[in-house]
Each structure stands twice: as C-alpha cells, then as structure tokens.
TrEMBL record:
It catalyses: (R)-malate + NAD(+) = pyruvate + CO2 + NADH; (2R,3S)-tartrate + NAD(+) = 2-hydroxy-3-oxosuccinate + NADH + H(+); (2R,3R)-tartrate + NAD(+) = 2-hydroxy-3-oxosuccinate + NADH + H(+); (2R,3R)-tartrate + H(+) = (R)-glycerate + CO2. Its EC number is 1.1.1.83, 1.1.1.93, 4.1.1.73. Has multiple catalytic activities. Apart from catalyzing the oxidation of (+)-tartrate to oxaloglycolate, also converts meso-tartrate to D-glycerate and catalyzes the oxidative decarboxylation of D-malate to pyruvate. This is D-malate dehydrogenase [decarboxylating]. Belongs to the isocitrate and isopropylmalate dehydrogenases family. Its cofactor is Mg(2+); K(+); Mn(2+). It comes from the Bacteria. InterPro entries: ICDH/IPMDH, IsoCit/isopropylmalate_DH_CS, IsoPropMal-DH-like_dom, TTC_DH. Keywords: Manganese, Metal-binding, NAD, Oxidoreductase. Pathway: Carbohydrate acid metabolism; tartrate degradation; 2-hydroxy-3-oxosuccinate from L-tartrate: step 1/1; Carbohydrate acid metabolism; tartrate degradation; D-glycerate from L-tartrate: step 1/1; Carbohydrate acid metabolism; tartrate degradation; 2-hydroxy-3-oxosuccinate from meso-tartrate: step 1/1.
Length: 356
C-alpha cells in the first residue's frame, strides 16, 4: 500500500465546497486503485481563522505543513478582509516558504465545454503556462513613504535574479520537451522594460542551447494576449514572469470556457518541500454556499498532484472521468449546464468506478 499524506487547506468562500468534492474523488480513486491511500489532514486556516486569531495561519504553519507529501488548497479571500492580507497571510508564504518556484497551469478545452472563441474546439487550445512563482513583480519588495500626505510615494520593485530566471527557464524547456510539439513561447516585455526583461530574453537563449530539440519563440506580453485569442493553435508551452503569467493564465482559463475548470500546481521541482495544488479561481463570493461551484478545476489539480506523486495511472483515470462527465453534459452553470457541485462530483466518482 502506498500512502500519501495530504494537507487539505480549503480556506474561504467556495474553497471548502470544491476541496470537499476533491477529497471525495480522491478517496474513490484510492478505492478503485486498491493499493494507494490518501491520508488527509484538514487545516482550518483562512479568513475565519484570521478573524479569530489575527493571523491567517499559525506562526509555525509552514513547520506543520513540512512533513506532508502535498498540499491541496482551496481559495483565499473574504469580502471583509483586505485581499493583500489574505494572500500574503497564507498562499504566498506557502509558495515562497517552500520555494515552489514553478507554477504550472495547464489549459485545454474539455469535451462538452464551449470556448467563447468562435470555431475553437477540443484540440485547438492545449497549453501549459509556466509561471515564475518566487520572485519578479511579486517579490514583496517596495515600500511607502509619507503615508497619506500629498507627496506620498509607493514603490513596487520587480526582482529578477539569474538563478531564479535560469531555473524557471530550464523547467519550462524541460516541460516543453516532454510534450508532443516540443515548442516553447517565452513571454516578456523587453521593449519597455530594459533590464530584468532583457535578462530574461538572454537567459532564455542560453538555456535553449541545452534543449536543441525544443523549438522556441518570443512574445511581448501585450501581443501575446492577441495571439492567444486569434491564434490559439499556434501555442503550446508558455513561460512568463509572475505577474504576466498570472494575467495570461486567467485569460487562458476564460478562453477554455471558465475559470472554474482551470487548475494550477505550485511545484518545488527539487522536492525539498511539499508542493501545493489548487484551482486558479478565488473564493467566488457571488456563488458561495449555493452548491454550484464548478469542481472540475479542483479535480484537474488533483490529477496534477497525482502526477507529481508518481501516481500516473490514477491521474490519467481521474482526467478520463472528468472528460467523460463533461462530454456527457453534466456541467455546472458557469460552463452552461445546470448540475450542482454534488451532481458533477457523484458523476465523476461513478465514472472512476466504471473506468477500466
Ligand atoms: P474569483 O475567481 O473568486 O471569481 C471570479 C468569477 O468567476 C466569479 O463570478 C465567480 O463566481 C466565478 N468562478 C470562480 N470560480 C468558479 C467556480 N469554481 N465555479 C463557478 N464559477 C466560478 O475571483 P474574484 O471575484 O476576483 O475574487 C474573489 C476573492 O477571491 C477575492 O478576495 C480574491 O482576492 C480572491 N482570490 C483568491 C485566489 C486564490 O486563492 N488563489 C485567486 C483569485 C482571487
Ligand atoms: Mg490570478
């Protein structure tokens, strides 16, 4: 029996709804496989915890998470707590404290889900966005002076290091190499930003020499949004900075049909620490408690988690089940259906049980 210790942090809004669904699916996958166990430990960290304790997680939170094989995360954000507190209090300390420097965001059009792009269907949009997840624009470097005064100044400094850029570039080239098209697009803004971004381009060209079988090209981030919309077939693996990839992957999620289907993995490729798996979306106040949150993103990220743990059969089985259920039209309202979270979850569990 292979046992994996999973830390579940459902946190806020629809987070608990989708992580509950995900944990149910994981336990059915384990039953189906017979030789795998997922040992889930639940953490009540998040905005409710913050309102009680003044912090999003306990001071030794990272120490508590360290022994786990992976972290399964819902979403943070509450209407009555400022977003920079929820984000910097929980999700970012985990990403940064565990040096999860590769944020991997696959997007494709799932059968049964309609892209808002005309004439774009299954197979036309199949991307993986690799987001630098440890530095760049989200380094947390900056400050404010003369607060509240007319002469107030705020700085937000983007930090790019040779080590940081080289390791994400290598990760992205390797990932591109593992995909059938072996094609990578490197995104920057090196026309307007002359230092860090030009260094990105230079390091990309250096790392490219280690991967002679990978074809690659460069895009400026603004032009990239146009290419994603007008010519999605022309892209495959994409690497971009923390901020750029944050924005591009929301666009990617929307183009693939809904944020509700878009997953993300925060990976420590060196496996010194647990990696964290989550849906891209936030806590979605507008639908919290209605029972209609789309659990597909949370299932898909569980499949990324299984791949990371080396459980490739279970990962593939989960994705087959998700695709079957979506193709059968069992969809939540965000993707044009009228099924509930529970109905989609039950259907996926049934498909796993019936999968050969
Ligand atoms: P959001 O992702 O929560 O919601 C945007 C829109 O997409 C809403 O209309 C929502 O109903 C819909 N949506 C999102 N996930 C869905 C799902 N699974 N099924 C069906 N519909 C879904 O983004 P928003 O509204 O900008 O932010 C709400 C809160 O979430 C804020 O506090 C924000 O800071 C936080 N947030 C947290 C993230 C995280 O924990 N990683 C990521 C993004 C936002
Ligand atoms: Mg985002």
């Amino acid at each position: 029996m292979r046992t994996y210790k999973i830390a579940a942090i459902p946190a806020d809004g629809i987070g608990p709804e989708v992580i509950d669904a995900g944990s149910e699916v994981l336990s059915v996958l384990a039953q189906r496989a017979g030789d795998v166990r997922f040992d889930m430990t639940w953490f009540d960290w998040g905005s409710a915890y913050y309102k009680k304790n003044g912090v999003m997680m306990p001071e030794d939170g990272l120490e508590q998470l360290k022994p786990f094989d992976a972290i399964y995360f819902g979403a943070v954000g509450a209407p009555d707590v400022p977003d920079h507190i929820t984000l910097w209090g929980l999700r970012l300390p985990i990403c940064q404290g565990f040096d999860q420097y590769a944020n991997v965001r696959p997007t494709k059009i799932i059968p049964g889900v309609t892209s808002p792009l005309r004439n774009v269907g299954v197979g036309d949009l199949d991307w993986v966005i690799v987001r630098e997840n440890s530095e760049g624009e989200y380094s947390g470097h900056g400050g404010r002076a003369h607060r509240g005064m007319p002469e107030e100044v705020g700085t937000e400094v983007a930090i790019f290091t040779r080590v940081g850029v080289t390791r994400i570039m290598r990760y992205a080239f390797k990932l591109a190499q593992s995909r059938p098209r072996k094609f990578l697009t490197v995104v920057t803004k090196s026309n307007a930003q002359r230092f860090g971004m030009v260094m990105w381009d230079e390091i990309a060209a250096e790392v490219a020499q280690e991967f002679p079988d990978v074809t690659w090209d460069k895009m400026l981030v603004d032009a990239m949004t146009v290419r994603m919309v007008k010519n999605p077939q022309s892209l495959d693996t994409i690497v971009a900075t923390n901020l750029h990839a944050d924005i591009l992957s929301d666009l990617a999620g929307a183009l693939a049909g809904s944020l509700g289907v878009a997953p993300t993995a925060n990976i420590d490729p060196e496996r010194r620490f647990p990696s964290m798996f989550e849906p891209i979306h936030g806590s979605a106040f507008d639908i919290t408690g209605k029972g209609i949150a789309n659990p597909v993103a949370t299932f898909w990220t569980a499949s990324q988690m299984l791949d990371h743990l080396g459980e490739h059969d279970a990962s593939a089985r989960l994705m087959r089940a998700v695709e079957k259920v979506c193709a059968d039209g069992i969809l939540t309202p965000d993707v044009g259906g009228n099924a509930t979270t529970k109905e989609v979850t039950e259907a996926v569990c049934d498909a796993i049980r019936g999968d050969n």
